[in-house]
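Worked example 4.2. Below are the chains of a multi-component assembly; read each line carefully before continuing.
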Amino acid sequence: MDFTITEDQATLTQGVRDYLAGVHTPELLRALDASDSRRSDAVWQGLADMGLPGLLVPEAQGGLGLSLLDAVLIAAELGRAGVAEPIADTALVAAPLLAKAGGQEAVLEAIASGEVKVALQHPVNPWVADLDGASHILSAKDGALLLAERSSGAELLDSVDPLRRLYAPVAAKGVTVGSADALLDHAALIAAAQLVGLADAMLEQATDYAKNRSQFGQPIGSFQAVKHHLATAAVKIAFARPVIERAAVALQDGAASAPVHVSHAKLAAADAAWAMSETAIQTHGAMGYTYEVDLHFWMKRAWALSGAWGDRAFHLARIDAAVIGGALPIGPGHSFV
Amino acid sequence: MDLAYTTEQQAFRAEVRAWMEANAPKAPLVTLEREEGYHQHVEWERKLASGNWGMVTWPEAYGGRGLDLIQWLIFEEEYYRAGAPLRVNQNGIFLLGPTVMEYGTDEQKARFLTPMAKGEMIWAQAWSEPGAGSDMAAITSKAIRDGDHYVISGQKTWSSRASFADWGFGLFRTDPDSKRHKGLSFILFDLNAPGVTRRPIRQLHGDPGFAELFFDDVRVPVANRIAGEGEGWTVAMATAGFERGLMLRSPARFQAAAERLVKLFRACEAKAAPAAREQVMQAWMDAQAYAYNTYAVASKIMGGGQIGAEASLNKIFWSELDRAAHRTAMQLLGASAELRHLDGGALNAWLEGYIFSLSGPIYAGSNEIQRNIIAERLLGLPR
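Applying the procedure described above to all two chains together yields the following structure tokens:
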């Protein structure tokens, strides 16, 4: 029993964080927001050069063969930087599913090299992100997961998140590569991890703002009311993190209880991100209510990911069945078994 | 990260479980906030010690088992699983014990730790004074040096366990001209010494669990001072860290409460308010999150890391989840919640638990103080 991450994991995570902090700046987000496609080949190529698409691709197909625990650590960094490119869906959700399915070596090699982007669709998640730029699509249909090359065009929807590219779903087809439930759980877990990263970034932005913005002759961060708002949000974020890690390990191990842990992770992360977004805008005051402050990019992504891949009602229903319904043994001694 | 127990850890769990099943009281004891219950709990403490379970993480030389923090968590899980009584000696084993271990002399360790682990010396804490609650640096009680003794005068209040316990620990001003954090010393005293008067204070539930202490020129040997004269604040902050940190509130306690809450909900589901269902799930989720986090902190400490201001995150989280879980139970019980005894039998554990949970956000440094610590030390906001 050991809950610590390895030195390699810490190094990798810090490396990704440093890289994104250097290149994936708020100025970049604004430039993407001003563009038509809201996507950038240069940004994608940068992520590919960093090796991110291949993190969970097996070594035999040119990847690093990392685990879902690594995936959630990286997903949190993608959230922290507000990355909108379909890297989480492709690298952290599609890749491990395809690796597990077997027989998809060519697609995995293309994912690792950054040539292939995969869009994900599932009935629980009514919109499909980044369908236009994807070469492949993973679709849930009748409980199965199907892989196909993307063919037809699609109808673009308008998201509050200026960098989120949403489409109406298309007909599901292709070869079976796993179960629909596996897609849902993997994607919900990665969304949860991104939510914690988003919340972390908002906490940092709000804290910086509170240190620098003066009213009544002193920084607003010296006022106890402001301090307590931020501290309360920090508690929520801190206690969402281990739930996500626990869920990642359960899903990686194929534990029967994994779906419950994923739902717990998604709920805890969404609660933390939601609370943090409200706290952050309150801390920023009227400045936070403008498009001019960076905060809104993170806040809107948090709203979007909170509802995606199973909303609150969906995940509560799974907790309900397991905990109140009695499917899961609970109480002392049942944290990990 | 490896979230599976080793074979040795599983064997340890089985050993604890077997002992608890054979030895833990089958019926609830009288509350330890009353004299009769206090003595019942002391008896249980001694029984635990007879099985060498008094303080499993302490070195064997002091009556412990020298176990690591993961084993401690397993022990606690089995303890609460068995429904064993609350620890009457928690001030000693979880607060003073680690303090003496870190700052005490060999002589002090030998003198105090072993009797603590054996349940032969039950401790009260004496931090607060009428004018020094959360603002502990405002302490005015004095300990004036007279040869190899201190002469203590002044008053402490809200001293938990002090109505019945054997010994107390607290901060006293050894330099009468000193201000705030300076000039304080950490001193242990015999509650039965001449000049100590205890006045039990009835707590919210009506039981006299804690007390006011009056010191009227109480002579205490200098050998009872932990660390140097005037270093009391540093030592007390370490003790407070232990209190807020890992060991005071093991997750098993809240997991057991969440499990009982789920059972209560199932029993009265038909008349439950719509929101109650979600609150019950939240109680389970929060207890689980606290458990994962505690295992994570334990792993970190075992890997050579330390827990600093993060302890304040823990303290806020467990105290607020405890209050919410018990409030949910009270609301589920509805008109029965006010009854001191449910079904004419055992004490209403939900009522007692709810009342106790109200103290969580206050003691060990109020949650407002904890939020200041988080804001200033973790987030770096200006004072």
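Take a moment to check your reading of the output against the notes. Chain A has a mean pLDDT of 97. Residues 159 and 166 of chain A are 7 Å apart (CA to CA).
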